[in-house]
Amino acid sequence: MHPGDGDRDQHKQKIEKRVLLAQSDPSSGERESLISEYKLYITKIASRICHRQITAQDDEFSIALSGFDEAITRFEKGQPSTFLTFSYMVIQRRLTDFYRREQKHATNQSAIAPRGTTENDSISPEIVKHSVDQYREDERRDMTRFEVVQFTKLIERYDIKLTDLVKSSPKHKDTRRDMLDMAKAIIADKELYEGFMNKKKIGKDFAKRLGCHPRTIKRHRMYLTALVLVFVEDLPLLRQYLDLPTYKKGGG
After folding, report:
1. What's this model's pTM, rounded to 2 decimal places?
2. Under a CB-based contact definition with an 8 Å cutoff, are residues 230 and 151 in contact?
3. Are the C-beta atoms of residues 144 and 101 closer than 8 Å to each other?
């Protein structure tokens, strides 16, 4: 443990406890307190996402504030990301949605204008379009990086390191397809899915239900575990990159 880790863990536990209280007891005033206390944090991350200084008078601030409130509502106990990391992701998505809807034309060109452009400069439609496209590309890159970090932390809870996962991934297309079919079967089967989530592993006892040899489970456990996690966790970009469909959990 590094110096300060204990304090960070305590802060993480404290804020998550407050978030859960805000969810369970709306009359506690905890939601309003959290939003008030973290306004500076909300402003900072909105400014970082928008690449300019955001103030309380900007539409982006209101959207970021709403995103933080949404994060309080949606946060789940035990998920791999901290609440503040999760709130950053929600705010980033809401601001991106806002930019996509508005296309960031004349009303807010400064938020997406090229660096070095002043508010008095004339901006052509071509530059605006290029800036919007660049913003989307940057946002997608940031979200992909965020998902990879989340995925790395997630698989570590299952005693899997990303480097080991890469090394152990099957080389043959047929094997990867078989693993994909097994992952779908685990997700669709309530008993297998609950067993996986409770024990945090795919045991040899899964083999009979999956119609394979126990050695197959043992040999490809890391890859199969990672596939199941990509399916069931909120990792849309990784799922799209791997060309994986969305499946309901536990045969729901």
Report:
1. 0.47
2. yes
3. no
Distance CA 236, CA 152 (A): 15
User: pLDDT tens digits, residue range 182-204?
Assistant: 998 998 888 898 888 888 888 88
| Main-chain phi, psi angles of 150, to 5 degrees | -60, -45
Listing DSSP states for the chain in one string gives: --TTHHHHHHHHHHHHHHHHHHHH-GGGSHHHHHHHHTHHHHHHHHHHHHTS---TTSHHHHHHHHHHHHHHHH--TT-SS-HHHHHHHHHHHHHHHHHHHHTT-GGGGGGTSPTT--TTS---HHHHHHHHHHHHHHHHHHHHHHHHHHHHHHHHTTT--HHHHHHHS--SHHHHHHHHHHHHHHHH-HHHHHHHHHHTS--TTHHHHHTS-HHHHHHTHHHHHHHHHHHHSS-HHHHHHTT-----GGG-
Q: What is the largest CA-CA distance in the chain?
A: 70
Name the amino acid, one letter, at 124: S
